[in-house]
Design goal:
Layout lengths: L2 H10 L3 E2 L10 E3 L2 E2 L2 E2 L4 H6 L4 E4 L10 E3 L3 H15 L3 E6 L4 H12 L5 E3 L9 H7 L7 E5 L7 H9 L3 E4 L7 H4 L2 H8 L1 H8 L3 E5 L3 H7 L5 E5 L6 E2 L1 E4 L3 E6 L2 E8 L4 H13 L4 H10 L8 E5 L1 E7 L5 H12 L7 E5 L8 H14 L4 E5 L1 H4 L6 E3 L2 H10 L4 E7 L15
Parallel strand pairs: 1-2, 2-5, 5-6, 7-9, 7-10, 8-9, 10-11, 11-12, 12-13, 18-22, 19-20, 19-22, 20-21
Antiparallel strand pairs: 3-4, 14-15, 15-16, 17-18
Length: 425
Amino acid sequence: MKITELYQIFLEHPEVSTDTRKINPNCLFFALKGPNFNGNEFANQALEKGAAYAVIDEAKFKVSDKYILVDSVLETLQKLATYHRNQCSAKIISLTGSNGKTTTKELIFSVLSKKYNSIATQGNLNNHIGVPLTLLSIKSDTEMAVVEMGANHQKEIAFLSSIAQPDFGYITNFGKAHLEGFGGVEGVIKGKSELYDFLIAHDKYVFMNADDPIQLEKLGTYVKKIGYSASNPQYYSIQLKESSPFVILEVEKTRISTQLTGAYNFTNCCAAIVMGKYFNVPLEDIKSALEGYSPENNRSQIIEKGRIKIILDAYNANPTSMEMAIRNFDNMKTPDSYLILGDMFELGDVSAEEHQSIADLTKTLGFTNVLLVGNHFYGVQTPFLKFQTFEEIKNYLESHPVEKGNMLIKGSRGMALERILDYLG
């Protein structure tokens, strides 16, 4: 079936599902495959639950006209998403970066929603499946779509850009994330910059942090760039006033007090502000959006349990974000401060070095109550307590309860350190 024909079916059934556990009446089910599953085998189940059609790529499963046979379900989903994107009038803003993507996306969405009918990537559905699903959620009255793009290897951002074909783009930063897949920091810069490459090649607009020397170098003399800066008068001026514990900033003599912790969230706010200003969102609405945004999903959440104030930043971690979080927490340090740090994944050959560096940093800054969790941290040389498994630290906290103080909990998603909350307070 041609994409144009499938698109007519999509217009009649504009809700897409790839999960038989989430089937709404009259949706289109795309039978994707994975390493451990074959969606074709669940197509009949999707139809029984109310899907209008099931898109499959194995002929033996086609037993009625309710099954749409294609060469590749994944490629069809991606092509349909791009076709739909090109029929819509919504402006597409894509963003990527090593740290802060999801928070920045949510802030941009909050600001733009004050003036425009907007959508944004749900959760972290930012890969070769999530990006098409986001695009297919654009409605006829959608004016702005904020599309997050994640990557852990070269050419991935280029491919996602070809699917989304953004009108605008933004890179949060270049850090030590997914070093194994990208092949080091230079590989990260090259890979993330593929968004810039697409935008420049198609003469589109770029939002930028003009205080980031890498972004300045990458964009060079490119004309269609809109930047913010705390120091360069050539760009939109935004000043950081406080960051411990919460970010307070000033723009056009207007003070904005956020619920976000740490100076590293300053640039995330700046991106939302400069986009709001570019798209003529009134400053009072920008202020309202930023002050009303409350972090969740284990991202820099402030949680109080008894007499313990916890910064829960357990959604993800890499050496760059880990160092920034620890240095920010250092500003809140008291004799009762605790650091609970979990392994950082996908670091390849530099994993041992980077974990040792973080352990050394905590000692240099003068922290005394440091608990390190996971196989990687277990191998470092340090005077601090090390636990190879979550079960070990759980047992320790049960027998050595923390009664008061400030605490930072941070680690990669696979460590699921939010479970520690059950053993505190």
